[in-house]
Automatic annotation (TrEMBL):
Domain Cyclic nucleotide-binding positions: 15-116
Stated name of the protein: Crp/Fnr family transcriptional regulator
Transmembrane segments: none
Keyword Transcription regulation included in the entry's annotation: yes
């Protein structure tokens, strides 16, 4: 995302987080730009019955939680580390100064946010009107496209993560993936999913 040298020029701090540690909670005021140096985290919401709905996964080199900075609002989801993480943190005021002084970086952020908005739009449509097969294939194809893979792509999501991202029960995901294999729409090898 933003080159490390530029983040350091604006005095971003580097903070270490442990696995399962929360970076920020839903409804907290957005005050920082976050960019992962190492590690992986998820952003998610909890439903009233306690089920997690994963908004997305973010790993080394990716930023997260920017939209509320631009509208001075609260975080719409919780961010939690899946692994130990090192994360660059830049206060909002310095982040905006950086964007004003580095228009190429501003454009990169805008493109990233646009991709995320398109993904969210697709997922909302999937959750509201499409059957499980379509939901799962759309999600998996999104990850394949994001990886710019034209070859056989190994899906890096667990069945539980697919469930959390599509709003389906794990049992439904397992059954649907087996059916998709029978229909030759994906490949299963040693319990791994390939497209």
């Amino acid at each position: 995302m933003i080159p490390i040298a530029i983040l350091e020029e604006y005095e971003a701090s580097l903070k270490s987080y442990t696995k399962d540690q929360v970076v920020f909670r839903e409804h907290e005021q957005a005050q920082f730009y976050y960019q992962i140096k190492t590690g992986k985290l998820k952003m998610f919401n909890h439903s009233e019955d306690g089920k997690a709905f994963i908004q997305g996964f973010f790993e080394s080199g990716k930023s997260f939680g920017e939209p509320p900075l631009f509208q001075d609002s609260n975080y719409p989801a919780c961010a939690q580390c899946i692994t130990d993480c090192s994360i660059y943190i830049l206060p909002k005021e310095r982040f905006f100064s950086l964007l004003k002084n580095h228009p190429k970086e501003h454009l990169k952020i805008t493109k990233t946010l646009s991709k995320r908005m398109i993904y969210k739009s697709k997922i909302i449509q999937e959750l509201s009107i499409h059957p499980p097969e379509h939901r799962i294939l759309t999600l998996l194809n999104h990850f394949k496209e994001t990886a710019n893979s034209t070859d056989l792509y190994e899906v890096q999501l667990t069945r539980q993560q697919i469930s959390d991202m599509t709003g389906l029960r794990v049992e439904t995901v397992i059954r649907t993936i087996k059916q998709l294999e029978k229909d030759h729409k994906l490949i299963l090898k040693r319990h791994k999913v390939f497209l």
